[in-house]
Structure formats: structure tokens, C-alpha cells
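Chapter review. Work through the record for 1,4-alpha-glucan branching enzyme GlgB before attempting the end-of-chapter questions.
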Amino acid sequence: MQLAQQFEQVLCSQPFSHLGVITNKQESILRVWHPNASQITIKWENTALANVTATSNNGLFETKLPKEYQGEIYRVIAEGLNDDKGYIDPYQFSEQAYHAVHYIDSKPSNLYEQAGAQLLTLTSSQGDSVKGVRFCVFAPNASTVSLIGDFNQWDGRTHPMEKTSMGYWVLFVPELAEGERYKYHIKDAHGHDLPHKADPLGFSAEQYPSHASKIYNHNNYEWNDSAWMEKRKGNKYNSPMSIYEVHLGSWKRPGIDTDARYLTYKALADDLISYVSDMGYTHVELLPISEFPFDGSWGYQPVGMFAPTSRFGNPDEFKYFVDKAHQAGIGVIIDWVPAHFPEDGHGLARFDGSCVYEYEDPRKGWHPDWNSCIYDFGKDTVRQFLVANALFWLDKFHVDGLRVDAVASMLYLDYSRNDGEWIPNVDGGNENYEAISLLKWMNEEVYKHFPDAMTIAEESTSFPKVSRPVFDGGLGFGFKWNMGWMHDSLHYIAKDPAYRNYHHGDITFSMVYAFDENFVLPISHDEVVHGKGSMLHKMPGDEWQQAANLRCYAGFMYGHPGKKLNFMGNELAQAREWNHDSSLDWHLLDYEKHKGIQALYKALNHLYTSTPALYEQDHEPGGFAWLDHNNADQSVVSFVRMSKDARQKVYVVSNFTPVPRQNFRIGVDDACTLTLALNTDDGAYWGSDYDVASTVNTQTIPWNERTHSAEITLPPLATVFYVANVD
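C-alpha cells for 1,4-alpha-glucan branching enzyme GlgB:
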């Protein structure tokens, strides 16, 4: 096949061998490819060559290159384009394009520093400089890859890319600028056209219908969070952590006087961050913001892993959101989804016609629960892609932590599969050794390069040592969601108080394993969707009892060892389930009940963050002791939390029945005065305002295997906190 036909039919995988300056022993030939051009001119800074010969009828030209111009940057001016300036030929920069792949696999972060679309300034051997973009994409089994975009009318013939020995395709295109849209036109190994693919390393992306990647410069934004970055070096395990989980698209919507569907990152930086700060939360956790095509996935079917979703603004505006959070003293955690990805045509699925990113066998590579592809955790290129992505968000966006989604689905080969639907590992078991290895490596790299950040596992099984260091045989996560506590405690609180005495173990069992991991107590978005009911409507009884149960449960949660996480809207006591297509029910704050419950969550946060006994030993047995865990008859649980120096103790008592209890005796360790710190039944929280003493003196009466005791009043369906400060 003639060379021109190869280019015309997009069949050339080695354009650098045929285009640009081709030098042999006798002479140097300059060859240019410009589809459909009938005549071109080659132009240097002060000279032009018009006698360029067309070697075909459809765009291939060549001329002998005078020695005095070798090494100088030249332009191509095509007749009929109404552009006297023309363009700098990309194919004179073969060495600079190849440079991208030399260091990619030496460390994970090199992937996002070298691949994708990188803005560069190149200098010729003559000292001339030119700005442009180097493109580098991994498609090892493609027969050809072309760069397409607005700059070439999305014509796959115009910019064929060069295939390297590592399976990457490269091309440097001069004078492209930030904001330009692009994709890749890929032919599979058999020469069949695939759907145009977005850049797996794209830093910015458009929404439907284009789903195009956009060139973006990460070096423009100037950060103003140095004080926070220094502050976050403190020990996270003995610091308070109360997390507000947020779906940015439905926390609050724009007013009716605008056509905007969502608040922008900038608007959220002002509105959301000030709210989170006022409510006393220490961190905000965002449902996935990596670019995703379908609103209804809430971000859990990501396509653009290196691009914050453009629904709310551009990448710099997301940086602004993080920056403003840090300036307000709020940490930012993002949900990270390395377990699976959707089949959308512009995404990773069968990227070059083969399974580049996913397992080939559907028994490993297809997720039946989410109808999505599973990453091949055994491939070096996929492993680097995922680890690089984890580092990328911490590096370029200063996020403080990654909450890793669906870890259990990664750990087990038989997750949500019946017999015969999965492939055992080499030892005949169900553990995915490749995924386990990947998670360990990811955590090691994160804590190696960003020791002040954190990783949090959403892991719903009893897999051992999830939040223990890799050197200790663990997976290396910093924290783990306590799904067992969540399940058992919600099962308990949903029972009618008359029957709770038969289920007392549900509310106490968590302390059997509370210190096996570094736990976060999650009441997340998953608990208020898909028919599970809102938090308020999980509670039994009439309107007052539902609200009281919710307040009592919230108090119990804040007293229990473990960091805290609450999904947005829990504090409003919404009656309806969360709906990602609409705002939270902010109008409920016009009513005293909802305003009171919001006030309780605010008070709990401020009590928690200002009381070392409630957070310093969240993950150490020495910070907790039962007073009485056997009082099933009265459905009362009581325990004490202690600061690290043991000088502060908080006595927490929860009455899970609507029966008030006078003269209720609790054991106390010391002769002291107990000061009421919080009562969830307080009238300020829409409680019954049952009379409770603000201070109580202890008595030398042994109780609960302690030398002293005190008599307190337990309001109905309430949790009370009494603080003792010992000199």
C-alpha cells in the first residue's frame, strides 16, 4: 500500500519514520502530511520554500531540505485554509515526543507527570523555543491511534501518533493551549474503528454529549493553605474527627432565578464550608468527584479518574474549594473508586479493542452488582494507573484523605458470585491476591509520599488487619469504616423500645472488637436510600418518639469509641430518603423539631471536638470502660470515656426506653463532681426538657465494681454526658 494511502486510511503506526525530516546518507528529505491540501509552503523564520512537491493526490508532500535549515523549526502553510500563519509541523519533534515514555514506569507519579496531555516548552538545537502539548496514551494492542480535536476538525487522518515499544502512543503538537478539547481515534488490532476515547489521564473533561478531554495546566493555581498543611501533621488517631459526608450535586441547589442545575465549586466553597465549620465538623467527605457520565451513579461509576467532574466547575475551582476548606480549618476527604469502572464507550472498557484495564475473563472482570468492569489488579500498568491516581489527588489537589470504596469487592474473588461464577486463586481460595497486593502498595506509596494524609477503607467483612501497617501484615489503611457497629446499632434502634431488651447485644457487641481496627463510625448515604428510609423514619413510635430516638442514638454514637461520619441531611431529621436529583429539605428548619435536632448535632460536634476524653483514645482499650452493659431489662447502657492522661472522664448513659428513671445509680471511679455536658432531651433540641441536675456529687457507695457512685436522672429516650475533671 502506498504511503499516502496509509495516512489517508489511518493505518500508519510509525509516522515519525515517514514524516518530518528524513535523513539518509545522501540527503535530508522534509516530508509533510496534510489531508486534502493541494499545495503547501514550508516556512522558516525568514525564508519560505514554495517548491514543495505533492507526491500524492491527497495530502503527502516532500522536498529536499537545505543543510542550512536542518534543526530549525519550520511551519507548514496550506493553500486554501485562510491562515497565513500556518502551523508548526508536529513531526519534526520525534525525540521530544519519545521522551515521555522513558521514565513512566520508574515510579507511580511519573504516569501523571509524563502521560496524558502535558503542556511543555521545547527548545530546538538552534535555540528556538516552541510551546505546545505532548500527548501520551497507553493502547498496546491498537493498530493505530490518532489525536483528534477541534484543532483538526476531529479528523483522525490529520495527527497520527507514534507507537513506542512500551505500548504508549506519543505526539507533540505545537501551539496547542489550555482548554483545547481532544480525544483519541483508535483502531483495534484488526483495524476496526472504536468509539472515540477520552484520555484516561485527562485532567479535565466535558459533560455529555462530547465527553471530550480538555488540556489543563496544573501549575497555574496558587495555594493559600500552608498553615493547614502544617497543622495536619498532627496525630490523627488521638485527634477529633467528625466527618460530614456530602453529595455536592444535592446538598443545596441554585435558586429558581437561575438556569444553573448545580452550585459551583466556588459557591460551595463559601456556602458549604461555612456551614460545615459552624456545625462543628472537622472534615467534609465528598462522594466521588472523579468525572462520571451518569448522575444516578452518584460518582461511583467513574470514567475520568484524573479529572474532577466539570458539573461544578473546572479543576482550579475545585482547588479553590479545597483551599477555602483548609483556610477554614476543615479537612477534605474524597471517595476514591479503584474497584470498578463503567462500560461507557468513551471510557476505559476495551480501550484499544482489548482488555487493557479490565480482567479478560468475566468471572473476574465483570461486577454483577454494579454492571461494571473490574480492574485487572495483576497488570503492572493497571496497578501503576491506580496508585498514580491515588497520589494525584493528594498531590495536585491537596486533599487530606481517600475513602476507598468497595474494598470488600476487591478482596474476594467470590464477592456477590454463586458457585461456578468465580475463579479460585492459585491456592484454591477466594482471596484476590492481586487486589490485596495492590491495596498494600497503594497505602505504602500514599503514606511514603504524603505521611500527613490518610486512607480509609469501606470494608464490610472481618478481613484481618485492614487498618494495620503493611509491615505488620496489614493492608496498610489508616482507618476502616465500622460496618458491624452501623448494622447492629441501626437494627437495635429500629426496634420498638418494648422489645429492645431482647436485642440488647446488638447495641453492646461492637465493643468486643472495637479496638481491632482504627474505626470510623459511619452513618453514610447508603443507609438513607433504596427503601431503607431516612434516619428519622428508621425510628419507631410517634412523631416525638421518633425524634427522641434519633437524638438518643446520635448521642450514643458520639459517646462510642471511633471517629464519626454522618451523611448530609441526618442533622435535619429529614422524613424522606435522600434523592440525588433534589436539594436537602432545608425548609424543614422553619420547624422547631428539625431546628432542634440540627442544634443537637452541632452541640454534639462541639462537645466532641472540645473534650479530649471523647477522642484521644478512640482506638485504644484504655480510653473506654463499661459501667454496665448487662442492663437489658431497662435497656440502658452506660460507660466511661477517658483522656490519655486520665485526668478527664466522661460518663455516658443512654436510656433507650421512653420511661424516665429517677435516682439512677452509676459507678464512678473517683470522689468528684459530675458536670452535665449534654442532654439529648434538652428543650433546645426539641426534647421533653425533663428535669436533670446540672451537677451531681459522688457518694462513697460502691457500684458497677467502682469505689464511688452517683445518682442521676435519666430522661426518656435520651443520652446524657457527665464530665469529671480529676486534679
